[in-house]
Amino acid sequence: MKEDWGANPIDLEEALEIVDGDEELLKEIYHDFLDDYPEVFAKIKEDILRGDAHSLNSSAHKFKGMLKNIAAITASNIAFELEGMGKKQDLSRAGETLERLDEACKGLKAFILKCENASSEFSIKQPVSSTEKRITETANILIIDDDKMLCNILCHHLEGMGYAAVYALTLKQGLLRAASEAFDVVFLDVHLPDGNGLEALPKIREVPSTPEVIIFTGDSDPDGAELAIKCGAWDYIEKPPSTKKMTLPLVRALQYRDEKKKRKPRMSLKREGIIGTSPQLEACLDLVARAVNSDSNVLITGETGTGKELFARAIHQNSPRSNKRFVVVDCAALPGSLVESILFGNEKGAFTGADRAREGLVKQADEGTLFLDEVGELPFLVQKSFLRVIQERQFLPVGAKREIEVDFRLIAATNRDLDEMVRNDQFRSDLLFRLHIHKIEVPPLRARTADIKELAVYYLNKLCESYGTETKGFSPEFLEALKAYQWPGNVRELFNALEEVLSVARHEPTLFPHHLPTYIRAKLARTSLSASGGPKDDSPSVDILKDLAREDFPKIIDFRSTMERQYLQKLMQLAHGSKKEACQLSGLSRTRLFELLKKHSIWA
Amino acid sequence: MDKIKILVAEDARLIQKIYESGLLQDVFEIRIVSNGENAMKVHSAWNPDIILLDMRMPEMTGYSVLKEIREKNEDNSTTIIMATVLSYEDDIEACINLGIQGYIVKPIKVGEIGEKILKYYRKVNPEKARAALDELREARKREKEIKKERAGKAQKDTADVKNKETEEKTAEDRVQKENSLNREEDP
């Protein structure tokens, strides 16, 4: 078998020849490989998913070159197979081959890490090695599966590997054990006699020892695997599990746990002015905390005025990069002709008017965080240059002769639907793909009304302080009004409104609804009127009508067309592009559906 | 004599490092870029003697760079060498038709890369290439000696530390033994 674990994935003799016996260099290039390969691999995967044979041919070729240069024979042969598939434009078996490549790379990684322990082969030293040893001594593992024989075999194997393993045959037993003892990893079967493992997953994750959970999925069910990951499982293994399949996810989970433990316990997230305690906000802050603990790119989405930049700053301030700069690039305000120079800098005399060398914003973010605000507005051409900077962390200033290396953490924010923009060819899919490694969706203010009081108190006190006036009291009606209003402009609108309130009620000790700006009161009045009077309608409500003023009121023909288009877009999205499903969902006939899709050129 | 200026276009970091180690600074002046577009920019600004082009790079392939350079500079003064992982020969053929001086096949090896490049450069500038080759061999020798010395020293240091540890351990053992003997005698 080609990808036999027993065989060395690296030809060490060849590797030493490549570096001319320089072990230090060998160590370095293997580290580079470990750092860089996930990205190249992701590109190959993306090409296969998109069915882009031409691009696959290139990306697999690239990977093959890297693998050849570290003497990873098996893996480079598999990359070669993929390259050939791209060349022949036959991707029918690309998926399987990709899996083999994945397996080979994992083996390669494990081998490199192993070599660090056994310096007899070549001496790569990385802190992880000691980690691995240490966790081996203490790791406790629980297997929840109703197959007793399988449990016995797995326990035996795991013990042979130096772990302490126990098993439970039912979900109930398993939950009890997990709650009463401390485990590092739980292997969990989905189909158990007394319940579904996936449903119990959150409970297991919540027990005091917060173990990592690895799911056994049956029937090679791809949805089950996806669901498992969504429910917070660390990884999944297809049934029947074997030691070979279990080892890598297990080792990685344990490494992760160990690193997590080593990390200094964070007392609490520095919130950087993020106010509120609503569950929606807390959930969002959880995501922030998760992003803080890694160095990957983050995409923050949310309506205008929700405070996306605050969240970006919070990530920066809580990250190890906090003592370096947080550089904001407002993509909507970049002047067309100077974009490259502003971002990447320029040499003196690079173009007419460049009377001095300028350090670009990207360079300023070196070792710190680069925040791309309104990333959806980034000009299409610059997206390409940017993609390259993200991939290579190197760039060439305008007129320069040497590329500059940068090390920054990238956070991007937008209020636009980037997926939609990708579909309309306004945003590069490969850029989006790299941006949303972590995605944080900041909830609109109307979805977190519980925070409105706290926000209002905080901001009013701040305002009063700066104006030197006494703090104000809120009448209950005032608060009610704040909560009832929809705040389309979110926190920013709230703050602006409060400023207006204060200018009106400067000398009054208590605030009442009549202090609110007129447009808000008008809207509230309309809402309350339509809520109390008027016939109740059971058909799905169409919110946009409510806010329409007389002068904006559309002709029915336009309105119908807009609605139809939106309906179809949503329909196709929900049906995952399947016309059959779309017909079922909408009750439209196939011909009519096609007609409508054509009319709105949704497939164009 | 001026050093030979080499522009390397290669996007994989680990391979960039191998070029850096193999193309010794005593002999070559090198600039490394990681994509074709930057290769074009540095080429026109710096005017290197040799360009080492990776066949496939993001956005603009080595082939396109080659094509553009050849179309721009009619005198063909720059030595262009392609780096490739042999797979489909038509790639190389197309490059040869556009006029490359040679190609090297991955894996790139630290000990060989300099000489390989000079072999191709000899066709363009025999005198400079020969001088550089002598210089390169000298420099490699020097480097090897330095490394050997360093390795020897490191070994000695480790040995010293070990000896010291053993000595300390023996001393400690002795003290412990004496202490326990004293205790036995005490009552």
Instruction: Describe the largest sheet of chain A.
Output: 5 strands, parallel
**Assembly state (oligomeric):** heterodimer
Q: Judging by the overall fold, what is the CATH architecture of the largest domain in chain A? A: 3-Layer(aba) Sandwich
Report the biggest beta sheet of chain B as strand number plus sense, adding barrel if it closes: 5 strands, parallel
Rough shape of chain A?
globular
What level of helicity do the residues of chain A show?
Answer: 40-55%
User: What is the number of beta strands of chain A?
Assistant: 16
- What would CATH call the homologous superfamily of the largest domain in chain A? P-loop containing nucleotide triphosphate hydrolases
Report on the structure:
The complex is a heterodimer of chains A (604) and B (187). By secondary structure, chain A is of the alpha/beta class. A five-stranded parallel β-sheet of chain A has the order 2-1-3-6-7, sandwiched between helices. In chain A, strands 9-10-13-8-14 form a five-stranded parallel β-sheet. Chain A has a two-stranded antiparallel ribbon with strand order 4-5. In chain A, α7 links the parallel β1 and β2 (164-168). Chain A folds into five domains: 12-126, Up-down Bundle (Four Helix Bundle (Hemerythrin (Met), subunit A)), CATH 1.20.120; 130-262, Rossmann fold (3-Layer(aba) Sandwich); 279-441, Rossmann fold (3-Layer(aba) Sandwich), CATH 3.40.50; 445-532, Helicase, Ruva Protein, domain 3 (Orthogonal Bundle); 556-599. Chain A starts with 11 loop residues before the first helix and ends in a 5-residue tail after the last helix. Chain A is globular, with a radius of gyration of 29 Å. The model of chain A is unreliable at 1-6, 119-137 and 534-541 (pLDDT under 50). Chain A is built from 26 helices and 16 strands. Chain B is an alpha/beta fold and 187 residues long. Chain B has a single domain (4-138), classed as Response regulator (Rossmann fold), CATH 3.40.50.2300. Chain B has six helices and five strands; from the N terminus they run βαβαβαβαβαα. A five-stranded parallel β-sheet of chain B has the order 2-1-3-4-5, sandwiched between helices. In chain B, β1 (4-9), α1 (13-22) and β2 form a beta-alpha-beta unit. The radius of gyration of chain B is 27 Å and the shape is elongated. The A-B interface holds A 14, 17-20, 22, 25, 28-30, 32-33, 35-36, 58, 61-62, 64-66, 68-71, 80, 83, 87, 384, 388, 391-392, 394, 396, 399-403 and B 11-15, 17-18, 21-22, 31-35, 38, 41-42, 45-46, 54-56, 58-59, 61, 85, 87-88, 106-111, 147.
